[in-house]
Design goal:
It is a single chain. By secondary structure, the chain is an alpha+beta fold. It folds into two domains: 8-72 and 209-226, Pseudouridine synthase; 75-207, Pseudouridine synthase (2-Layer Sandwich). It has helices at residues 20-35, 67-71, 107-116, 138-143, 182-192, 218-226, and strands at residues 8-14, 42-44, 52-60, 75-83, 85-86, 98-99, 119-123, 132-133, 136-137, 153-166, 169-176, 197-207, 210-211. Strands 1, 2, 3, 4, 7, 10, 11, 12 and 13 form a nine-stranded mixed β-sheet that branches. Helix 1 packs parallel to helix 6 (218-226). The longest helix is centred in the N-terminal third of the chain and has 16 residues, at 20-35. The termini are close together.
């Protein structure tokens, strides 16, 4: 039975094309019905883009007080970067806007670029991000054709491992600090290689000690709420 005094923390494996808010809304509705309440406080501990899958931590009730603590923990991601082009969103949300040569890029070049991006550096957020500019989200401005005035942020790449290289696609595993944009890391990776690059897939596998292999699907979580299995 859900303990309303302690609240609830749920690990969810977010499906492709769902927004983080979609997941929060679905689980909030299930909790409201189960607890027979009009409102239940529900939030997530770190958003995932619609085109990313993987670990999304949902907190409900008094557990929402721990969201900041969870968000500050190290994140782990796996995914792929496609070389030879850039997109305005730095991922597959938008079509390529420029193309570049890749014939000069060797496997050793890729490994060197990953090593150069490991550690602390000032990362520029993507124009298509949720950063707020005078109360308006950067991606809303970008979608209107405007250039958001964004500032770089100091982030830390703890590990940047290339798990396989199948040109023009590079597969990776990254561990990083809060606030890191993996889309920006992909873009910066392309620049290091004197080419272009965009993020072609992304999956969050861990937040601190929480791992996606322990996560529910959205459907499993709703079923568990309905049947007192949490």
């Amino acid at each position: 039975m859900i303990d309303e005094k302690k609240g609830l923390t749920l690990l969810i494996d977010k499906p492709l094309e769902w927004t983080s808010f979609d997941v929060v809304s679905k689980l909030r509705n299930a909790l409201c019905k189960k607890l027979k309440k009009k409102k239940v406080k529900v939030g997530h501990a770190g958003t995932l883009d619609p085109l990313a899958t993987g670990l999304l931590i949902i907190c409900a009730g008094k557990a929402t007080k721990g969201i900041d603590l969870i968000q500050n923990q190290t994140k782990e991601y796996t995914g792929s970067i496609t070389l030879g082009a850039t997109t305005p969103s730095y991922d597959l949300e938008t079509e390529p806007d420029a193309h570049f040569e890749t014939a000069h890029i060797t496997r050793e070049d890729c490994r060197r670029a990953a090593a150069e991006l490991t550690g602390e550096y000032d990362q520029m957020p993507p124009d298509f991000s949720a950063k707020k500019i005078k109360g308006e989200k950067a991606y809303d401005l970008a979608r209107k054709g405007e250039k958001p005035e964004l500032k770089p942020k100091r982030i830390s790449i703890l590990e940047f491992e290339l798990t396989s290289i199948e040109m023009p696609v590079v597969h990776f595993r990254v561990t990083c600090s809060k606030g890191t944009y993996i889309r920006s890391l992909a873009y910066d990776f392309g620049e290091k290689l004197q080419s272009g690059a965009y993020l072609s897939s992304l999956r969050r596998t861990a937040i601190g000690d929480f791992t996606v292999d322990k996560a529910y699907t959205v459907e499993q979580a709703v079923f568990a709420i309905q049947n007192n299995e949490l």
